[in-house]
Amino acid sequence: HQETLTIKGSVVNPIKFSLTRSQYEQLLQTVDTLLMEGKSTEEKKVEDRSVLENILEDSELNTGVSTLSMDPALRARMMSHSSGHRLTASSPNQSISLTVGFELPLLTLELLADLGAGEQKFVELSFKELIVQYEKSHNLETIVQISLHSVMMEDLQKPEDSKHRLIMLSSNANLGDPLMNMPGFVSKSCPNLNISQGALLPWHSSLPDHLETGTVLGAGKMRHHHVVAAENSMENRMKGAIPRCPYTPPPSPRGKASPSVYNEDNLVHVNICLKPSRHPNINSSRSVTVDFNSLDVIVNVESWVVVLDFFGISDIDDVTKSSEQFQEPQTPTSVKNITDAVAGLDSELDITVKSFSLLLNRKEYEVARAVMSNFSAHLTTKGGSDTTQTEASIDSFVLCDFTPIHSLLYKERFVTAGLQLSMNKFNSPDVYRIRPYDFKLKLNMTSLVYVHSQRYVAEIQTFFNLFPHLRREVGYFRGNLLEDDENTLSTRVLLEIRAPSPIIILPMSSQTSSVIVANLGNLTVRNAIKMSDSPDVISRSSDPRKEVLLDVMKIELESMDLATGIRVSNLASDISDAIPVGSYLIKRSGPSLLREKCHLSLQVERNLMRLNHCVPDLSIHGKLSTLAASLTLENYKLISGLLTFNIGECIDDLQMIVSIPDTSTVIDDDACVWTNTYMNFDLQDVSVCLVTGEFELACINFIKSSLTVDNFSNRTQDIDLVSQEILITDIRYQDQPANKRSNVFTNILQPIHQINDADSVQAQIHHRRNIDSSKFTILLNNMRLMAILDWWELVRDFIMTKPDVVPKFVHVSTPTSQQPSIKEQTEIPYELKLNITDSEIVVVQDTSQWDTNAVILKSTTVITYRPLEIQKPVSC
Predict the structure, then answer these.
(1) Phi-psi region of 374 (alpha: psi -120 to 50; beta: other; left: phi over 0)
(2) Nearest to 164 by CA among 148, 153, 175
(3) What values do phi and psi take at 843, rounded to 5?
(4) What are residue 769's phi and psi, to 5 degrees?
(5) What is the pLDDT of residues 452-485, one digit of tens each?
(6) First-last CA distance in the chain
(7) Among 301, 427, 313, which residue's Cα sits nearest to residue 24?
(8) How far, in Å, CA of 33 to CA of 575, rounded?
(9) 33: left (phi over 0), alpha (psi -120 to 50) or beta
(10) Are the CB atoms for 515 and 487 separated by under 8 Å?
(11) What pLDDT digit, counting tens, does each position of 699-754 carry?
């Protein structure tokens, strides 16, 4: 018979702790010391017991003769006597079944921090109805169950009436009719006429309506008080069993549990199962199951930086102590020693979250909200492997725009469903880059819609840039100075993404309903971690003495298509073939811009050394071949507006966090400027046709060209279109007979002589845009330009057509006012330079006849046009 020890404890009054970070660390160190002492004492007892058993066995067998050379009958009798003696001696030390229960109604933690203005109260964290059940019935298994009804985190720096004061709050995701969730023992004399007849309860809802002798007087089956107590025990409450009676009088029967202990109302349930190993070569196992109900989180940056730093989740200490922990380079042997230190425990963690909401909030306004539903994950860690395997799935994920003005039309920005995730992560740091990666991530998405705007991406970047900025301030006030190292690595992530038919929506502006719909076809993404001197890397270091670690990503887009569309309400009558994006729809408004679906290959290279700028921070290389596009005037206005008001939108009103260089030393201005992003696209046999409302106007054939875009850290942008072979034709009369064509000189721009030199340039368009100026340079080399004046006038009118004016709104950076103000734009100085080298300009008398008089102007000249200079706008 096994003895059982049951301990039950509960705290009647709420408990509140007020802690600084140093006090919290001291508390953790005290607990660790106690646990280590207990563990060492237990190991010493086990060692002493084994020594005594060996001594006992030697004394019993001290015959002077080896047991192997004894008579078999004598040896068996002595061995049985020895084992029986040990069994008798160990019988009084049988294990005891231990059950411990603990309840805490309310636990409050008040976090204190000093950020230069003295010790202040920053956050208050409250846990309601914490129940812990510990059960160890034998030595081979330990079960711990934890239940938490709700959690609330309060930002004490916010006013009490602020809606952003509660930065973490649990809620019930399955709230239904409050009358249906009401306990059965509550009297409801007045019937609910709205409830359906089939939903009526099988018992009377008014207590007492009659005398139940079987329950009140104990007639019939006698139920002892310990049976009732067992049914309402804390163990059954932890397992979600429905109690037969409430925990307070009157003990009337009912069909469902009280809301205070009802399983679905609780925020989190944690089940932990520990199984020690029975063999020294087999690891012990730990299985943890965590079930979250619903949780809402508001991220106020200042308070969350304090919280993460308080609980040690921030990496301040890791950065400051990394040099102390790794005094010598790691080798594969030392890495193995790290894994051996954590060997002996296999861990499994299952997490399910029914609903999770995250709100990103700045002082001035709300930025974004992310909502995730039905998240499940399985994490596995094998002892000694130093890696964690994760398999996860998400039913739906939605990212919403909450910024003022710019979120009025396009609230939902990212919508996906059916996401499958697989991740492999190393647990210990890799300072000396021995491992091939830090994370390995595989993503499969069945449905994906993304609405892109440059401002919203900048809003998200600005928000998260506040974290390292404030983290440094917290480290400064705690005495931990974070030093920048040019060899500091970003996280090395290996990606493998598959998404069938993802859709990207490109609005002309956040205030307009016109969009471009890009169906990316079959999207495949793979990457690798390589040095900048690798043969298949395009980005080369500008300093041969410094090689940079790069994240090289290859993106394949098969069967990509482009079309125009319009944003409509989800209440519109005609919604056939519309793309649902949350609260609105995107409906196609015209044919495809491409004659045939195309294939696009991209290579994206990301600099993992954030302070080493020998290569661009981000490089994008692509190749387009055999592509034919057709642009109407409306499509051209839409694309022009997209480049001006969306991708090229001025976001100076966003207070970007930038690092201020040290002014103690004089540094050359050019040395402080580096390339943020570099984009290069090779255009092979790409043609673009310009179509007016009545006829096709022109066709531009980029037979062999390249488009390059450079964005620098000083907010300068360079755009280069270089053509080694280009042809521009007049296609107004291509469908008419030759004798009825008004222009027979269809090749408007073509080379004079065929030059086979691969480095020769026929035409180049360069555009440099600074903060206070804009400059165009057009170069023609060895080209013949036909001056067909009526055609050039039509092309000029087509190209110079401006998109519809979109007012530029700038946020007023005050917490009390979110009204936009319209900023008056001053005209930026503009310059156009035409450089003609060994080229011809041909003016003909009659464009409808081949045999006609012509004037050929052949020279090398530079013409400059500055419209803001009234006295001398043109110079030559």
Answers:
(1) left
(2) 153
(3) -115, 120
(4) -120, 120
(5) 998 898 888 888 877 776 666 666 555 554 444 4
(6) 109
(7) 313
(8) 66
(9) alpha
(10) no
(11) 999 999 999 988 888 878 888 999 999 999 999 988 888 888 888 999 999 998 87
